[in-house]
Design the sequence.
C-alpha cells in the first residue's frame, strides 16, 4: 500500500508541476502579446503628426476639462445652455433684442420687489439690493481676441492671394465656396451651434477611439493624396507658377 501511495503522490506532483509550467507559459505569452500590442500602438501614426495627448493639445486646464467631460456636470450644463439658446432663437423664433428686453424687465422686477420688501422690513437695508456690474476688462479682452483672430484670417487670405501660387489660391477659393454653400443651408446661429456641439463631442470621442480614427483617417488621406497627385500631374502641373507673379501695372 505504501508503494502505491508514494507512486500516486509522485504522479500527482508531476502533473501539478506541468500544470504550473503551462500557466506560467500562458502568462508569459499573454504579457508578451500585450507588450507587442502596446509597442505597435505606440508606433502608430497619429493625425497631423500628433505626439501629445488630446488634453494637452486642447490647452489643458478648465477648458480642456469641459471639452473632454472631465467634470460631467459642468460640461452637461454648458451644452444644455447652448441648446436652450439655440432652441429659443431657431425653433421659437425669438430675437436677441426681444430676449434682452425680457431679461432686463425680469432683472428690474426682481430689484423692485427686493427694494419694496426691504423697505417695509427695514428702510436702512434698501441700499443692499445687489447690482450687476460687468467689468470693462471683459469687453476689452473679447474685442482684442476677436480683432486678432479676424486680422489673422485676413492675413492668411491675403498672403495666399499675393504669393502667386495657383494651387493654394484654388484650395482657398474652393474652401470659401464650400463655406458659402453650407451657410446657405442654415443660418449663422445654427452653424455656431453645430460647431459648439462638435467641439464638445468630437474631442471626447476621438480620445476614446483614437486608434480606430487615426487608422481610418490615414486611409482617407492616402486616397485623397492619390487623387490629388493625379489632378496635379494632369492639370495643375501644367499651369506656370510665375504667371501671376512679377507683373507690374502702370
Sequence:
Amino acid at each position: 500500500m505504501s508503494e502505491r501511495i508514494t507512486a500516486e503522490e509522485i504522479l500527482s506532483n508531476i502533473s501539478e508541476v506541468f500544470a504550473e509550467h503551462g500557466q506560467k507559459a500562458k502568462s508569459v505569452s499573454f504579457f508578451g502579446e500585450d507588450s507587442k500590442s502596446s509597442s505597435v500602438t505606440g508606433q502608430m501614426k497619429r493625425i497631423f503628426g500628433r505626439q501629445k495627448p488630446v488634453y494637452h493639445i486642447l490647452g489643458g486646464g478648465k477648458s480642456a476639462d469641459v471639452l473632454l467631460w472631465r467634470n460631467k456636470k459642468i460640461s452637461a450644463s454648458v451644452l444644455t445652455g447652448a441648446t436652450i439658446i439655440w432652441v429659443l432663437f431657431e425653433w421659437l423664433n425669438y430675437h436677441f433684442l426681444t430676449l434682452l428686453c425680457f431679461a432686463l424687465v425680469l432683472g428690474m422686477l426682481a430689484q423692485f420687489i427686493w427694494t419694496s420688501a426691504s423697505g417695509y422690513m427695514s428702510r436702512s437695508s434698501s441700499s443692499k439690493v445687489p447690482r450687476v456690474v460687468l467689468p470693462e476688462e471683459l469687453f476689452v479682452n473679447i474685442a482684442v481676441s476677436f480683432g486678432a483672430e479676424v486680422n489673422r484670417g485676413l492675413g492668411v487670405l491675403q498672403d495666399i492671394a499675393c504669393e502667386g501660387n495657383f494651387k493654394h489660391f484654388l484650395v482657398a477659393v474652393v474652401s470659401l465656396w464650400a463655406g458659402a454653400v453650407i451657410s446657405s443651408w442654415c443660418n449663422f446661429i445654427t452653424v455656431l451651434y453645430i460647431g459648439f456641439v462638435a467641439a464638445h463631442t468630437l474631442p471626447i470621442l476621438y480620445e476614446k477611439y483614437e486608434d480606430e480614427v487615426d487608422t481610418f483617417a490615414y486611409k482617407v488621406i492616402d486616397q485623397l493624396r492619390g487623387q490629388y497627385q493625379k489632378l496635379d500631374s494632369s492639370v495643375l502641373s501644367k499651369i506656370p507658377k510665375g504667371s501671376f507673379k512679377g507683373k507690374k501695372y502702370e
User: Anything to note?
Assistant: The chain is about 75% helix and 0% strand. Residues 1-5, 21-43, 243-250 have pLDDT under 50 and may be disordered. Residues 134 and 203 are 32 Å apart (CA to CA).
